[in-house]
TrEMBL record:
<dbReference type="InterPro" id="IPR053883">
    <property type="entry name" value="DUF3097_N"/>
</dbReference>
<dbReference type="Pfam" id="PF22845">
    <property type="entry name" value="DUF3097_N"/>
</dbReference>
<feature type="domain" description="DUF3097">
    <location>
        <begin position="20"/>
        <end position="79"/>
    </location>
</feature>
<dbReference type="InterPro" id="IPR021447">
    <property type="entry name" value="DUF3097_C"/>
</dbReference>
<feature type="domain" description="DUF3097">
    <location>
        <begin position="108"/>
        <end position="264"/>
    </location>
</feature>
<dbReference type="Pfam" id="PF11296">
    <property type="entry name" value="DUF3097_C"/>
</dbReference>
<protein>
    <submittedName>
        <fullName>DUF3097 domain-containing protein</fullName>
    </submittedName>
</protein>
Length: 269
């Protein structure tokens, strides 16, 4: 006798089908068994890795009806062929996939030179576009008082300024003190040049060499390390080694973050 298998479960007791949702990077879901809520950062080998807002990671199996999406039960499935997007910007901030750049604020951040501006853009560019902050460069600080006076910083147009080699008692320090106000903040790092704010290990050297006083610092560095004396080309090679905030010295990181916070603080709590 031929045997037949039959599903004798009454229709009203069968679980209703739920949608299948690709576990695309950045998708925020909740695992109901643990209450863990986070964004997808990885999906492989039948598992999905979530990251919560505190940066904590948890790995869960891709099981049917295993997650909640906006309060609805869903089945996560592995994406077909979409590459994983980074979950962090180069500065370490949480990435916002598809976020549009904000209309530029009236406030600005000024840095001393083009190399400084390029380094800030490389590490903080995504954050600055979301916040609508424009970075411009000064080519030195001698004319800073006139520049600040022309800018006329105020509550809705704050000005942040990053100065190289800002040490107490120096000419740069006195100029910075003269323009600092409630709506204009000048901060600095201890390095002679922005090159020195890149960690030596990231560039592949043991340390940045000491250059005799009176000699052009960049040229002296190139000579001491046996690099070509084309400082523009050398800088581009250094910049290419910078992949994230991890390649920069903490003394620079803190100052740039301080300026971004200052310029974007509109007094709203």
């Amino acid at each position: 006798m031929r045997q037949y298998s039959a599903d004798l479960t009454p229709p009203w007791k069968k679980p209703k089908p739920v949608p299948e949702v690709p576990a695309d990077p950045g998708l925020v879901v909740e695992e109901p068994g643990t209450g863990f809520c986070g964004a997808v950062i990885r999906c492989e080998a039948g598992t999905v890795t979530l990251e919560d807002r505190f940066g904590k990671h948890r790995v869960f199996p891709l099981e049917p009806r295993g997650f909640l999406l906006e309060g609805r039960v869903v089945t996560l499935v592995k994406p077909v062929s979409s590459p994983l997007r980074p979950t962090r910007t180069a500065s370490g901030s949480v990435a916002v996939p598809g976020a549009r750049a904000r209309v530029a604020r009236a406030g600005r951040i000024y840095v001393e030179g083009r190399h400084d501006a390029e380094l800030v853009e490389r590490v903080w560019g995504d954050d600055l576009r979301i916040e609508g902050v424009v970075v411009e460069y000064l080519e030195g600080v001698d004319d800073l008082p006139a520049i600040v006076a022309e800018f006329a910083p105020g509550p809705d147009a704050r000005l942040g300024i990053l100065v190289d080699h800002l040490l107490p008692g120096t000419k740069e320090w006195r100029i910075a003190q003269s323009v600092t106000s409630e709506h204009a903040l000048v901060v600095g790092h201890p390095y002679i040049d922005i090159w020195e704010a890149v960690k030596p290990s990231s560039v592949g050297i043991a340390a940045w060499p000491r250059v005799p006083h009176g000699q052009d610092w960049k040229t002296g560095v190139c000579r001491a390390l046996g690099w070509p004396e084309n400082t523009g080309a050398v800088w581009q090679a250094i910049l290419a080694k910078v992949q994230s905030y991890k390649d920069l010295e903490p003394e620079l990181l803190g100052r740039v973050e301080e300026l971004i916070d200052f310029v974007t603080d509109n007094g709203e709590a």
